[in-house]
Amino acid sequence: MAETPNQWTSAIDTTRPSIARAYDVVLNGKDNFEVDRAFVAEIVKVVPEIYDVATYNRQILGRGVRFLVEQGVTQFIDLGSGLPTVENTHHVAQRANPESRVVYVDNDPMVLAHGRALLAENDRTAVVTSDLRDPKTILADKDVRRLIDFDRPVGVMLVGILHHLHDDEDPRGIVQAYMDAVPSGSYLFITHFCASSEDSREAEKKFLALLGTGRFRTEAEITGFFDGFELLEPGVVALPLWRPEGPVPSELTVGQRLMYGGIARKR
């Protein structure tokens, strides 16, 4: 039986903020509710630059995907992808190489509803509704298997999502499970909230209190996700410093240092 829009929306919880919808708010999107906007308003009190932080994250996604296509990668698994917006992974990848294939994975039902509509005429892209904490199920998914050839290099993307996994959920083990499934020559692309200032630590308290997730890890902890892989230059750095395409201030603001990221290659 075909799914209907009503089936999609009936699963949406509008009584509490959602990760995907809150990110949509700070990207100035329209697919969010008052509860999401109220949550972001509380974060703004601690980190006034939070809207800019979302922009920095979106910009590194574009730079990172273009870099991976330049390395010959034409297939991507975007885990915890969030709601479709401008310059999604498939836009960037397919502009650089029209043969690129992209699978988006998110557990928010709104992502499925909007993603399917957006991608209805793009047979090289799919949306899978699943929880990234279950690699086995995701890696066996029929759309993942249809689009991703696990004998060829894959770009495994965890952009702005690992900080929503608690330490007791074994985020490093989850990362390893995905990387174990892809061949040598594949890449791991991570961005993550960083405990880089007193403001960031206050922001973590707000995230945990209001959203239930949002772990601001240290630079060393974020770098630890890349253990066992070849971390590429410039390493794990504040987002504006990762292979910038324009001038970068000599001194970064709190917002510019709120997220760190990097890309590593599986040997």
UniProtKB/TrEMBL annotation:
Any one GO MF annotation of this record: methyltransferase activity
Q: Name one Pfam family in it.
A: Methyltransf_19
Q: What keywords sit in the KW lines?
A: Methyltransferase, Transferase
Question: What organism does this protein naturally occur in?
Answer: Nonomuraea montanisoli
Give me any GO biological process, just one: methylation
List the SUPFAM superfamilies hit by this protein, alphabetically: S-adenosyl-L-methionine-dependent methyltransferases
Query: Is Methyltransferase there in the keyword field?
Result: yes
Matching entries from InterPro entries are given as: SAM-dependent_MTases_sf, SAM_dep_MeTrfase_SAV2177_type
- Record carries keyword Transferase: yes
The protein depicted here goes by the name SAM-dependent methyltransferase
